[in-house]
Amino acid sequence: MKSCKTCGKDFEGSAREFCSWQCEENYRHSLKKKLDDAIKHDKGHTQKLSKE
Ligand SMILES: [Zn+2]
Does pTM top 0.85 for this prediction? Predict the structure, then answer.
């Protein structure tokens, strides 16, 4: 038994980390959002620095 990385539900299977493709999509989506936020934050920071 493994538990899904997104919703924490237990499921059968060895190769996958998620109980369903929806959970996999959600996980990737939230990862991407975190990355985008980090990039935005970096850009904002860089712009602020270059103006000063
Ligand atoms: Zn799940």
Answer: no
